[in-house]
């Protein structure tokens, strides 16, 4: 039972970040948390939930386990409650499917009583605290935890395009547009682009007459999931990253691109094998162009499709292609939500995103008794791990400790192999 005098915390957004926060906050008697979600479900990237999609982190990196392994909201408890723990361990010894984690998130959301169909329209503040106007009325809160996720990033030259023939990869499965016999332009070089490419090549909605796949990076590169790259997703490295200057942080992020912007080697092999089959083992007419180191620099709608301008990043040479459909697998970015507009002038904003402190708090000009925290919007200040599922529980625990002004969760300084201070002498570990 929670103390009726506890702080009212409104978590805006029902994605993994706020599900983790609400789950870990449940044992804290001083906090009363409500979670609101604008959509009708807490489905996790439903536009990209292919049956074969795999989680790119361990199933142990769920909503709670790395902070509280005994929590009832763990992924293992979800499997246990549904009577499939043993079968899961046999069927998935080395990976977890994204669809299964989506089921897990929905289960946790139901246990936590997430309020669905409740979009937040505006956040204001008066002498009693935050006034949050939603599609279902008005809520009051002492503190806010904003976890609305990132928004699809679209190249500037394509932002004017609308209609059923151009879409962001996040909507791919929702569109269900037949691609058979049509010319398709796919832009992007990350995991989402690879999954969209494999779907297009599968013939699920027909085989394209031509696929033009463009990535601005140096090639169709594999994601660096090696052990030392994974050290960048350790809380110790986040703390180290925070201590660096703005210039050094930018340099670190640039060095770490391969750990966040590539395609898994397994998926690259699948795409290559499928192209080989279509080129040599199929009677279906099909053409493809894979252009590495090329950027989409211009695009315009025509009566029968789209005219795209592609620029070689090495030589500056340009070429035009004509396409019937365009898929933009161009990633995501943090953005100040529209509902925060009434408070925008009172918030420290870095570009179009929040300036976030060490504990993910936005140090606005309001009273300390009314705090604002942001989840999944601090990559520039907390490193490439910020949008990654692997640190979601640790980040939630940091916020909870900050809200309570005490160490509710003991965030022990777990070991890290990387030496983060070159002046520090070598460590000797006891045998």
Automatic annotation (TrEMBL):
Its cofactor is FAD. It is an enzyme of class 1 (oxidoreductase). Keywords: FAD, Flavoprotein, Monooxygenase, NADP, Oxidoreductase. Its EC number is 1.14.13.59. InterPro entries: FAD/NAD-bd_sf, Lys/Orn_oxygenase. It catalyses: L-lysine + NADPH + O2 = N(6)-hydroxy-L-lysine + NADP(+) + H2O. Pathway: Siderophore biosynthesis. The keyword Repressor does not apply. Belongs to the lysine N(6)-hydroxylase/L-ornithine N(5)-oxygenase family. This is L-lysine N6-monooxygenase MbtG. It comes from Micromonospora qiuiae. The lineage of its organism: Bacteria, Bacillati, Actinomycetota, Actinomycetes, Micromonosporales.
């Amino acid at each position: 039972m929670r103390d009726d005098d506890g702080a009212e915390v409104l978590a805006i957004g029902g994605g993994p970040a706020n599900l983790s926060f609400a789950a870990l906050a449940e044992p804290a008697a001083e906090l009363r948390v409500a979670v609101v979600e604008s959509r009708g479900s807490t489905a996790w990237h439903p536009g990209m939930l292919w049956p074969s999609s795999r989680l790119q982190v361990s199933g142990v990196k769920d909503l709670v386990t790395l902070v509280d392994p005994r929590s009832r909201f763990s992924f293992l408890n979800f499997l246990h409650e549904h009577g499939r723990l043993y079968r899961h361990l046999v069927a998935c010894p080395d990976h977890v499917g994204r669809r299964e984690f989506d089921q897990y998130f929905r289960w946790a959301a139901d246990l936590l009583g997430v309020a669905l169909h409740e979009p937040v329209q505006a956040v204001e503040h008066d002498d009693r605290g935050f006034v949050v106007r939603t599609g279902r009325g008005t809520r009051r809160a002492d503190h806010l935890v904003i976890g609305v996720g990132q928004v699809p990033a679209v190249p500037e030259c394509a932002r004017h395009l609308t209609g059923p023939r151009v879409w962001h990869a996040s909507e791919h499965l929702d569109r269900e547009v037949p691609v058979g016999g049509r010319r398709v332009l796919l832009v992007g070089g990350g995991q989402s682009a690879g999954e969209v490419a494999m779907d297009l090549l599968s013939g699920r909605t027909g085989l394209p007459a031509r696929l033009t796949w463009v990535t601005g990076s140096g090639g169709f590169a594999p994601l660096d999931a090696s052990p030392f790259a994974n050290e960048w997703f350790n809380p110790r490295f986040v703390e180290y990253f925070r201590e660096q200057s703005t210039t050094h942080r930018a340099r670190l992020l640039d060095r770490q691109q391969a750990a966040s912007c590539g395609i898994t080697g397994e998926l690259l092999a699948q795409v290559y094998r499928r192209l080989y089959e279509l080129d040599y083992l199929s009677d279906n007419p099909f053409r493809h162009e894979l252009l590495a180191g090329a950027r989409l620099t211009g695009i315009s709608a025509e009566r029968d499709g789209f005219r795209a301008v592609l620029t070689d990043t090495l030589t500056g040479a340009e070429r035009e292609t004509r396409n019937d459909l365009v898929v933009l697998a161009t990633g995501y970015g943090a953005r100040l939500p529209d509902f925060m507009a009434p408070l925008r002038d009172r918030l420290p904003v870095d570009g179009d995103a929040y300036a976030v402190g060490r504990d993910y708090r936005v140090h606005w000009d309001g009273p300390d008794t009314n705090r604002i925290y942001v989840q999944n919007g601090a990559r520039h200040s907390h490193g490439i791990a910020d949008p990654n599922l692997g640190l979601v529980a640790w980040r939630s625990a940091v916020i909870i400790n900050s809200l309570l002004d005490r160490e509710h969760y003991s965030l022990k300084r777990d070991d890290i192999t990387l030496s983060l201070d070159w002046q520090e002498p070598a460590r000797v570990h006891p045998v």
